[in-house]
Design brief:
It is built from 24 helices and twelve strands. It is of the alpha/beta class. The protein has two domains: 238 residues, Rossmann fold; 147 residues, Arc Repressor Mutant, subunit A. Strand 9, helix 11 and strand 10 form a beta-alpha-beta unit. Helix 7 packs across helix 10. The protein is elongated, with a radius of gyration of 29 Å. The termini are far apart. The relative contact order is 0.08.
Length: 524
């Protein structure tokens, strides 16, 4: 056994804990199919949502941990339920009237409102794959439409038909009276209209492999084969059928699906298979604490996060405390960037055992890059704010003075941070800046700070600790309730915001004399 495997067996980070739990599944014998199958599900009824991608990120982290503690090969299926019928038109798409004409049809039969793909389902699938490819994930995209229509689900669908009554017995107690009257685990796709029908079955024939229903318009009895993509399973039965047909070993899902998981597990056992190991993660909330909805579009889109920050910061956000509800909106982005940089900076000095607990190990599959970023994202943001930067060259003028020899060419990741900081400042900070007029106490304290910075002279230029000590000393001498209030005053008066960076580090970068001028300007 290698030393890395020994350390991995002892690792306590949540992906390793999940990997060890999965490994017990194969304690008696390895999987008959020859590999452990991880699956993530995607419902392309709305535009791709960041929560879906978070599921892939987290599942990948568990898969990577599993690969360190086991010799069993692994595969990851990113499965799109694009055979599902369109239940309602999303609010955040164009051509909504056109889409309304195709309600009930499988998503891969609904025209693409964006006009870029043959169908709405394929459009959203492409959006999903583009993001996953951008992260460099190792995955295999799977389409529900393809599996149904190709016949690869035929054997599993026949198994559902054979256990039709047992599945209904599981589901009916969970449904209301109206839904119970029409429920069928297998939904025929209407040969006339192409929509997925939720109608009661007149009969089922496991030998012939057919189901029969009464056409609500013609009144005729219609017999449909369950194979070849002519039917679609109901959601909970579909999930169980997929687990059975693919022999899925591991799949995580949101906390809101815990009851669904329990029912699908029961159905999976009725079909004759062991359900996959499951993991329930908490949901994302918007800035108002409301659940993020794909159809409402009230959360951050993937493209929006990546417009302001590198993908590694998003991966870190997904890694952190997956069982705790977290707010996902623009203000969390800068903090996520700096936390990523902090973890990355400490990785190289940590012992091997500690490295396995470091988030960047999981973000980069054990091989994090050697980025050297001597300036936090928060300080870059505030520098851009103070100088009203429009051009990266303005920020690089300050950076080159603070870090001699550091350029965009020698530190490409820092160059990315500079560009992200400019865009974030221009879009998210500048429109909301509100400068506070200082009261007498704040005016006196800031005036004293300017005097002491002047008196300290060039000896403290670039010395963030010495500058921070000066700020602390001034704050302690004036009647602020707490030092936190003193720093809040600095942020409100000098930067026009409620929060800010470590001021000693900021002044070291921005410049002592420039800070003195800034104070005089704000007091004037």
């Amino acid at each position: 056994m290698t030393s890395l495997k020994i350390l991995a067996d002892q690792a306590r980070s949540w992906p390793f804990e999940e990997a060890k739990r999965l490994l017990t599944r194969f304690a008696q014998q390895p999987p008959a199919k020859g590999y452990a199958l991880f699956e993530t599900g995607y419902g392309p009824s709305g535009l791709p949502h960041i929560g879906t991608f978070g599921e892939v990120v987290r599942t990948t982290m568990v898969r990577q941990a599993f690969q360190r503690i086991s010799d069993i090969p692994t595969r990851l299926f990113a499965f799109s339920d694009d055979m599902d019928g369109l239940r309602k038109v999303p609010e955040n798409v164009p051509n909504r009237e056109m889409m309304a004409k195709h309600l009930g049809k499988p998503l891969t039969q609904v025209p693409d409102p964006f006009g870029t793909h043959p169908s709405f389902g394929e459009h959203n699938n492409a959006r999903l794959c583009a993001f996953l490819d951008g992260f460099g994930f190792e995955y295999e995209f799977q389409s529900s439409t393809d599996w149904y229509r190709s016949g690869r689900f035929d054997a599993a669908l026949m198994q559902v038909l054979r256990h039709y009554d047992a599945i209904k017995a599981i589901m009916l107690p969970t449904l209301g009276p109206e839904r119970r009257a029409t429920y069928s685990p297998l939904m025929p796709i209407c040969p006339r209209r192409g929509i997925v029908l939720q109608v009661p079955m007149e009969s089922t024939d496991p030998v012939a492999g057919t189901i029969s229903y009464r056409d609500d318009e013609t009144g005729k009895l219609v017999e449909v084969e369950v194979t070849g993509g002519r039917v679609k399973c109901q959601w909970k039965a579909d999930w169980a059928m997929r687990w059975y047909g693919l022999a899925v070993d591991y799949e995580m899902s949101g906390k809101d699906l815990i009851p669904t998981v329990a029912l699908s597990q029961k159905i999976c056992r009725v079909l004759g298979a062991t359900p996959p190991e499951s993991f329930s993660y908490e949901l994302f909330l918007d800035q108002n604490g409301e659940k993020i909805s794909k159809s409402r579009g009230n959360g951050l889109a993937v493209e929006e996060w990546l417009h302001y920050a590198p993908p590694e910061s998003l991966a870190l956000y997904m890694y952190q405390q997956p069982r705790r509800a977290k707010r996902l909106y623009f203000d969390v982005i800068p903090k996520a960037v700096d936390e990523y940089l902090s973890h990355l900076s400490s990785f190289s000095t940590e012992a091997p055992a500690a490295q396995l607990e470091n988030p960047v190990w999981h973000i980069h599959n054990g091989q994090p890059p050697a980025h050297d970023v001597p300036i936090s994202f928060a300080i870059l943001l505030n520098l851009a704010s103070v100088v009203h930067a429009e051009d990266p060259a303005v920020l690089w003028g300050f950076i080159s003075r603070y870090c001699p020899g550091v350029t965009a060419e020698t530190s490409p990741f820092l160059a990315q941070m500079v560009q992200f900081a400019l865009v974030y400042y221009q879009d998210r900070v500048r429109p909301h800046k509100v400068f506070v007029t200082p009261d007498d106490n704040a005016r006196a304290a800031l005036g004293e700070l300017a005097k002491r910075l002047t008196a300290a002279g060039a000896a403290v230029d670039g010395d963030s600790e010495a500058l921070q000590n000066i700020i602390f000393a001034v704050g302690k001498e004036f009647p602020f309730a707490t030092l936190r209030d003193w720093f809040k005053t600095i942020y409100q008066v000098l930067l026009g915001q409620e929060e800010g960076p470590r001021m000693g580090s900021f002044i070291a970068l921005y410049g002592r004399t420039e800070t003195i001028k800034l104070i005089e300007q704000r007091l004037g």
